[in-house]
Amino acid sequence: MMLFSSDLGEAMGRKKLPIGIQTFATIRGGDYYYVDKTGHAMQVAEGRTCFLSRPRRFGKSLFLDTLAEMFAGNRALFEGLACYDVWDWDTVYPVVRLGFAEGVLTDQAALDERIVVQLERNAERLGLGPVPDYRIPDRFIWLIQEAEKVHGQQVVVLVDEYDKPILDNLGNPDRAAQMRDGLRDVYSVLKGQEAHLRFVMLTGVSKFSKVSIFSGLNNLEDITMSPRYSAVCGYTEDDLDTVFAPELEGLDRDKVREWYNGYNWRGQAVYNPFDLLLLFREKEFGYYWFESATPTFLVEMLTQRRSYLPRLADLEASQTQLSTFDVGNLSTVALLFQTGYLTIDLARSDPPDVYRLRYPNAEVRTSLAGALLDHLRPMDESAAGTGPTALRRLLADADFVRLRQYVSAMFSGIPTNWHMTNDIERFEGYYASVFYAYFAAAGLTVITEDASSTGRVDMTVLTATRIFVFEFKVVPPAPVGSAIAQIEEKRYADKYLAEGLPVYQVGVEFSVETRNIVTFDVKQVA
Predict the structure, then answer these.
(1) Whole-number Å distance between alpha carbons of 174 and 157
(2) CB-hemisphere CA count at 13 Å for 508?
(3) What is the DSSP secondary structure assignment for residue 526, as one 8-state letter?
């Protein structure tokens, strides 16, 4: 009997996609796909006070809800999972839940109200009666101690998106500091109540310093960079090939990996769950995570700081640098790493705790370049021949006359403030950043500072049919013609001759005076 696609999915055990569902009981009771994270949950629960940082839409809320159901002793929900025959189901703990994922809080009064409402809801759920009209920290203390007294067990406290009120206000440092101080009053309670607590876990996007927000919570175990927990959130390659095997039908497996895999915290690489679930539903590749999770302040900060885009994908940072984050001291590399736009490529042993970073995948690389490009040099892509499709076509056809016209249009409206300094390195960095952003936003494979035995060429672009080696110069001080001369003298293109594809050397020279390209030399390698 011939099976149609829908019949084939049912025959392979197709289930419902848990898009946007963060409640463990709903997933387990509703015939949804579920990737078993209970083995990780048991490992985490061996500790007492735990912190995990992961980007948004990575499954942190679902993981916390899983822990809540385990500590609450709801064994029936876990049948067939790793913890079912191992977890101590006879000991049931009162669980206090706090979370800040919903909505945007813009002042101290709104934050206080959110906290008070959550404390009252926890008290009602746990059967504790009305919360006394104390100061907020004292209400939290009362809740913990009363829950232990009524239920006869130490308390479990789970805090979801602990930092969101701060992150939502980073564009206003004073307001962000106000949010930080208000949250610190709440989190500081956890240290003093240690004797009444069985387990505490906080999750969020960013790792604010302990001094600034946790106020003495020095027993907090940060598992963010622990290799054993790299896959605590997210889907692994094995998860795709087993749990989601029915959904892979008709999809290019290598393209799925290229677009959405690659997030790594010194262990097993993972996919973003939000991306994959929407890919399985829509059956087409899109910028699902980026369009739903990218904070405007990140793009604005990168452009305000004039970050050199070609180097963002090849940074090195120590563990201390990746963890240095506080209101008024926002490290660019820490922000990019913690929010998921850079990930660990390699951990060095000498010096120790130094990591090479990279973009996780094609989705992040392409979409971030596009977002930054809108700030660097907005261009009307509705006009014929100005969008990424046109750029890809010009490269595929090796149409260098029109490519020069396209590139000239890129630079026709450079912001005036870029010309109010004689800092040539800044000019060259700006030109190279715009150039890189256009090519990366077009979805092309771009290698920056491409190393060879004789040096580093500024940029190499790889397509399915051709290879382009670019060198950039600002004239003056560089003499006209020096860009193409350097490519030829250093023989940068030689490393690609064995690929069997046409290789083109492209020297691009910019003028500070005309604010545009003055030389666009192209030579095909013989």
Answers:
(1) 29
(2) 26
(3) -
Distance CA(318)–CA(352), nearest Å, equals 8
pLDDT tens, position by position, 219-264: 788 999 999 999 999 999 999 999 999 999 999 999 999 999 999 9
Closest listed residue to residue 193, CA positions, set 141, 135, 150, 115: 141
CA gap 125, 35 in Å, rounded: 28
Judge if the upstream peptide bond of residue 476 is cis by omega within 30 degrees of 0.
yes
Alpha-carbon torsion angle 518, 520, 521, 524, nearest 10: 180
Torsion angle of the four alpha carbons 156, 160, 163, 165, in this order, in degrees rounded to the nearest 10 = -120
CB 451 within 8 A of CB 441: no
- CB half-sphere exposure, 134, CA atoms < 13 A: 14
**Maximum CA pair distance of the chain?**
84
Q: Order of strands across the sheet with 155-160?
A: 95-99, 155-160, 197-204, 49-53, 221-222
pLDDT grade for 293, boundaries at 50, 70 and 90: low
User: Could you read off the pLDDT of 168-183 as tens digits, one per residue?
Assistant: 888 888 999 999 999 9
- Can you tell me the distance from the alpha carbon of 357 to that of 330, in angstroms, rounded to the nearest whole number? 18
CB within 8 Å of 109: residues ≥ 6 apart: none
Q: Where are the alpha helices (DSSP H) in 343-423?
A: 362-376, 388-397, 400-410
User: Does position 96 have pLDDT exceeding 60, yes or no?
Assistant: yes
Alpha-carbon distance of 405 to 286, in angstroms, equals: 29
The Cα-based distances of 323 to 170, 337, 365, 373, 376 in angstroms read 17, 9, 22, 28, 28
Helix, strand, or coil here: 510? strand
Confidence of residue 8 (pLDDT cuts 50, 70, 90): very low
Query: Which residues, in sequence order, are CB contacts of 180 under 8 Å at separation 6+?
Result: 166, 208, 212, 213, 326, 327
Q: Are 143 and 122 in contact (CB under 8 A)?
A: yes
Single-letter code of the amino acid located at 255: K
The Cα–Cα gap between 78 and 511 comes to: 66
The pTM of this model reads: 0.86
Q: How far is CA 512 from CA 7, 381, 407, 424, 427, in A?
A: 63, 25, 16, 9, 7
Tokens at 337, concatenated: 């790493």
List the strands of the sheet with 354-358, edge to edge.
Answer: 316-318, 354-358, 343-348
Contact indicator for 67, 152 with CB cutoff of 8 Å: no
Torsion of CA 19, 21, 22, 25, to 10 degrees: -130
Residue matched to tokens 């201390």: 320
Q: Bridge-partner residues for 157, per DSSP?
A: 96, 200
